[in-house]
Amino acid sequence: MYLIAPSILSADFTRLGEEVVNVIESGADWIHFDVMDNHYVPNMTIGPLVCKAIRPLTNAVIDVHLMARPVDRLIGDFARAGANVITFHPEASEHIDRSLSLIREHGCQAGLVFNPATPLHYMDYVMDKLDLVLLMGVNPGFGGQKFIPATLGKLQEARARIKEYEQESGHRIRVEVDGGVKVDNIAAIALAGADTFVAGSAIYEAGKESDPHRYDSVIASMRAQLARV
């Protein structure tokens, strides 16, 4: 039921391929791929060429989070580069329904991302095209930030909306949380309604402190906390 998706934003980019392989071997489920353009968020990261480079290294799902504007131009590039899931922020699309449809037309799962201050109503008329809803536990742009506690209430509201829709339609939508997810709060986040967890510094930094090549311990600790939910 629960999926752990390490964000490579916190990985060692001098050996990125090795970091991807090792974190999956250590028990992670997905690879979270943060794309920032220095327009939608005040930072710049990586693009489709990097996604294409890591695709042959793992069979794990590559979960591409577009923090960029406009999004439609990038969707095809990332789909061709090997993305399995593509999510974007509603504020970054002129036509949300069309952008979601474009992702699905390229054979990927589609999702919307909600910043801490972004209202959830954007999902109301596109539920049939959503495979995933991602709630940010921090304001996007930089790793290593502290989780915003108000996210838990918003997460409960999102889960309630999605549960009602699932009961009516039979269509399942995953609920993902990104930002500030750690061993000591992952259970509370799960209790509030999340089933997919993006963790960057919590995994990569902890792994570096003990063993630069393995992340078994911190991922196992997260699994243990989730098992208690």
Describe this structure in words.
It is a single chain. The protein has 229 residues and is α/β, with parallel strands linked by helices. It has one domain: Alpha-Beta Barrel (TIM Barrel). The chain contains eight helices and eight strands. Strands 1-8-7-6-5-4-3-2 form an eight-stranded parallel beta sheet. Helix 5 links the parallel strand 6 and strand 7. Helix 2 packs parallel to helix 3 and helix 7 packs across helix 8. The longest helix has 19 residues. It is globular, with a radius of gyration of 16 Å. 44% of the residues are buried.
Draw up the topology in text:
Layout: E1 3-6, H1 16-25, E2 30-36, H2 48-54, E3 61-67, H3 72-81, E4 85-88, H4 96-105, E5 109-114, E6 132-136, H5 151-169, E7 174-178, H6 186-192, E8 196-199, H7 201-210, H8 216-227
Parallel strand pairs: 1-8, 2-3, 3-4, 4-5, 5-6, 6-7, 7-8
Q: Assign an overall shape.
A: globular
User: Into how many domains do the coordinates divide?
Assistant: 1
Q: What portion of the residues fall into strands of 2 or more residues?
A: 15-25%
Structural Rg:
16 Å
Fill in the CATH topology.
Answer: TIM Barrel
Number of helices: 8
In spatial order, strands of the major sheet run 1-8-7-6-5-4-3-2
Helix-strand topology string: EHEHEHEHEEHEHEHH
CATH homology superfamily name = Aldolase class I
In the CATH scheme, the class would be: Alpha Beta
Distance between the termini: 11 Å
Q: How many strands appear in the DSSP assignment?
A: 8
CATH architecture verdict:
Alpha-Beta Barrel
Largest sheet: 8 strands, parallel
Structural class call reads alpha/beta
Spans where pLDDT lies below 50 across 5 or more residues: none
Q: Provide mean pLDDT, rounded.
A: 95
Provide the helix percentage: 25-40%
